[in-house]
Design brief:
The chain is about 35% helix and about 40% strand. The protein is α+β, with helices and mostly antiparallel strands. The chain folds into 2 domains: about 140 residues, no CATH class; about 100 residues, Sandwich (Immunoglobulin-like). The two termini are about 20 Å apart.
Length: about 240
């Protein structure tokens, strides 16, 4: 079931680079806006403000690139790291080259901290010179989604017809932040090799990103897999054998 689902959701590399082109256009628009501001100011405080805008813009674009790559990785059994490194290198070259044409000199280095089909973490080191001042920024571009089934929550529920069961699971993204505002369309549950129509309900106790599942079947001796696709189009999953 997992492989079939991943194949149905698989993005081609052609589609990836089309979307990547859109990100590059957005990046260049932000950079050109920044450079227009730098060329018009002489006050050091204003230059410093523009540098902050520029760094934040570059940081956002690296994050978008990592997010786009992970949306591809998360649908594969294995990952093609060259897809990530090539995307980062292309973005780095564009930022550096266009900035230098406007008298903004940058040195950008990237390091892959973690790369898998569940999460991507890239460190970016940016040093530059503009308006007679040096500036420095170090940041991480992190994207992830983690789904965790709670094995201690499995329990039998007496219904009118038979003993059914329920269990809980949590969904979190990078830095263990909960993913909120998900609905039934974001979830897919597989039992053994067959999907089953079930109901999802969020539950309280102050636990954000936690969900309860009620099954119209007995839980004993079955394999369960929860698949969750968040609003960034990144897939995460977890399995449990009862």
């Amino acid at each position: 079931m997992v492989q079939a689902m991943k194949k149905s959701l698989k993005n081609t590399k052609a589609q990836f680079f089309i979307v990547a082109a859109v990100i590059i256009v957005a990046t260049l628009s932000g950079i050109f806006y920044y450079m227009a501001q730098v060329n018009q100011v002489s006050n050091p405080n204003l230059v410093s403000t523009d540098e902050s805008f520029f760094i934040n813009n570059v940081q956002n674009e690296y994050g978008k690139t990592v997010e786009l790559v992970l949306s591809n990785f998360s649908r594969e059994e294995s990952v093609d790291i060259s897809l990530l490194t090539n995307s980062l290198n292309n973005l780095t070259d564009l930022v550096r080259n266009i900035s230098s044409q406007k008298g903004i000199y940058l040195n950008i280095s990237t390091a892959l901290n973690q790369v898998s089909n569940a999460s991507v973490n890239v460190s970016i080191n940016l040093t530059g010179y503009a308006g007679g001042q040096n500036f420095l920024s170090n940041f991480d571009a992190v994207r992830a989604i983690n789904v965790t089934i709670d094995p201690n929550s499995f329990q039998s529920v007496k219904s009118l017809l038979a003993y059914n069961c329920s269990f809980n699971f949590t969904v979190k993204k990078e830095y263990s932040e909960p993913i909120l505002f998900l609905n039934d369309t974001n979830f897919n549950l597989g039992i053994s090799t067959s999907p089953l129509l079930i109901g999802y309900k969020s539950y309280g106790k102050g636990i954000y990103g936690a969900w309860a599942v009620f099954l119209g079947t007995n839980c004993n001796n079955k394999k369960y897999q929860i698949n969750v696709t968040d609003h960034r189009n990144i897939l995460g999953y977890d399995t449990y054998q009862s």
